[in-house]
DNA sequence: ACGATAAGGAACCGTTGGGTCCTTATACGC
DNA sequence: GCGTATAAGGACCCAACGGTTCCTTATCGT
């Protein structure tokens, strides 16, 4: 019944992070407990606190392990690329415990280093790179103005989607993505188009 | 020493909400406690729970009481109006306990009605109205394209500022406002301008 | 003047994050 | 193969929290 062997090091660590993720998924951020995670991982709190110095630190580790991969869409059209990208990110959001991000923002507030780590992950430089690739390709095709776009424009689509996500409860309606792209992002990209 | 009289009804209620606000300001959302608020208001938890059925509900009441007034700027120029508006909202943000909004988002997640109340207040229809007035005036002056702008555009400035606020710690740098307006909002408003 | 209402105040409950202590299994240097 | 440093497992403790209950006593409406 009991596991014959005692796990150690990275094997154990991996098991704990996975247990934390499961706890977060099933209980949500607000109700997830260290005891629950320890029980789930078949270990004790002692072992948890040896590795992570606080609860939000472990939760952030669990989030980072989740590491969803987002590919660079390449449909041949800027608009469709952006819609595909945001659509994919929307899917990723839907897999997250609903209060994880806001909970981490709240609970890392008094730990600058941890907050920065969270912010870096959530604001995801990776996604910005993807957006930049999409825009560069579009510029090469002559669909948008040439030259590298300013940082704000690159961040814009993801910032708007994240804002929508944080300020809502259930899953985001699909229309949100196309609305953001068609009403805000695309009009900004087209050099001298109407509306 | 002790107050001779026993407060009741709205007098007491007002005192409690104010105590809650002070507690939030001094301790922050994460560390504010019901006991602390009761002590501060010179009453007991019993009285608190008679009026608000949970902690986040009281916190939201305290936030709503805060009710900062935002006037409609009228400088004669769209850009300056928008900069003034966002600048004012930035000031309001700076008066808020740093983790209040994210904390409320997290802790109202399992109470749909309360979440909606929070969302309605934070997304503030009032600010959208102000933006609409600014844009209409600008259209009248011929500074931007005529006709009512779509809802997304109206929300855009505030959404971007709120996103910046939620995803950061200390007070927002002043440059944030002008960046949002000049890099994103204004290029969208000018009918056929460059960049 | 009196009775319903509600304030003040205390004690209580279950649970949490965090920590201590002791036993015991494991990995590694010899 | 053996012994020792290391760390896992697990029980227990702690202060503090949100929320609840109960009792006493002041206030208000009638």
UniProtKB/TrEMBL annotation, chains A, B:
Q: Which residues bind DNA?
A: 33-52
Return any one Pfam family short name.
Answer: TetR_N
Q: What domain of life does the native source organism fall in?
A: Bacteria
Q: Where in this chain does the record put each HTH tetR-type domain?
A: 10-70
Listed A to Z, the keywords are:
DNA-binding, Transcription, Transcription regulation
User: GO terms for molecular function, please?
Assistant: DNA-binding transcription factor activity; transcription cis-regulatory region binding
Read off the SUPFAM superfamilies from this record.
Homeodomain-like, Tetracyclin repressor-like, C-terminal domain
- State what protein this is by name: TetR/AcrR family transcriptional regulator
Lineage runs: Bacteria, Bacillati, Actinomycetota, Actinomycetes, Streptosporangiales
């Amino acid at each position: 019944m009991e596991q014959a062997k005692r796990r150690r090091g990275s094997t154990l660590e991996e098991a704990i992070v996975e247990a934390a993720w499961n706890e977060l998924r099933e209980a949500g951020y607000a109700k997830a407990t260290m005891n629950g995670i320890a029980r789930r991982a078949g270990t004790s709190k002692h072992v948890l606190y040896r590795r992570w110095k606080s609860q939000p630190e472990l939760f952030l580790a669990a989030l980072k392990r989740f590491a969803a991969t987002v590919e660079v869409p390449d449909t041949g059209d800027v608009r469709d690329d952006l819609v595909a990208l945001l659509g994919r990110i929307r899917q990723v959001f839907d897999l997250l415990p609903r209060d994880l991000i806001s909970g981490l923002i709240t609970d890392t507030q008094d730990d600058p280093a941890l907050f920065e780590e969270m912010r870096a992950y959530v604001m995801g430089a990776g996604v910005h790179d993807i957006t930049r690739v999409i825009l560069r390709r579009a510029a090469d095709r002559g669909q948008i103005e040439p030259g590298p776009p300013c940082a704000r424009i690159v961040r814009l689509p993801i910032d708007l989607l994240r804002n929508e996500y944080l300020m809502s409860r259930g899953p985001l309606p699909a229309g949100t993505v196309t609305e953001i792209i068609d009403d805000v992002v695309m009009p900004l990209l087209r050099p001298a188009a109407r509306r």
